[in-house]
């Protein structure tokens, strides 16, 4: 799954890369994006700021409302479920990123392993989005089985990466056609195993549904 990614490019660079309008309205976001925090997406021809994760509303043992949990990853095999179906059919987006991270190592001593595309300063992961009462516009990253990809040695799942020639297809094709793009990345990946502690920030609480 993906619970942390980097996006180190300016909004203007993202807009130019995706031939989109910058509509992020001066929003601030960090180079490292965590669940529940703002990130950039490309949707409806514009670069927009949204919260990473669909809110899952939970209740306590006494029925009291709890703070919503961000469900930031959508499994490919669950895109037809009630939670994701309408967004997948009607509101797909591209998530610009420069790398994504997975945790490796023993519990309590996990470190960050970063993956990216060789010689690609920016690339896109598949996403879905919707409006929410809790956080306004929000998005989730689509995940698939990593078998057959370089990412498989790090984690059993990986983001669905969308090649530039497939951007328009992911955004606008019928759902059945878009689903065929949800495959592990067949090209090479750059893998950077670091000594950075994994639980440095909010990245210790992933959401996958």
What does this structure look like?
By secondary structure, the chain is mainly beta. It has one domain: Alpha-Beta Complex (hypothetical protein yedk fold), CATH 3.90.1680. The protein is built from 4 helices and 16 strands. Strands 2, 4, 5, 8, 9, 12, 13, 14 and 15 form a 9-stranded mixed sheet that branches. It is globular.
Short summary:
The protein is mainly beta. The chain has helices spanning 11-17, 85-90, 167-172, 175-179, and strands spanning 5-6, 21-22, 32-33, 38-43, 46-52, 54-56, 69-71, 73-75, 92-97, 99-104, 111-116, 123-132, 136-145, 157-159, 161-162, 190-197. It contains four helices and 16 strands.
The number of distinct helices, counting runs of at least 4 residues, comes to: 4
How many β-strands, per DSSP? 16
Arithmetic mean pLDDT: 92
| C-alpha end-to-end distance | 10 Å
Determine the strand fraction and express it as a percent band: 35-45%
CATH arch. level architecture: Alpha-Beta Complex
What is the ordering of alpha helices and beta strands?
Answer: EHEEEEEEEHEEEEEEEHHE
**CATH fold-level label:** hypothetical protein yedk fold
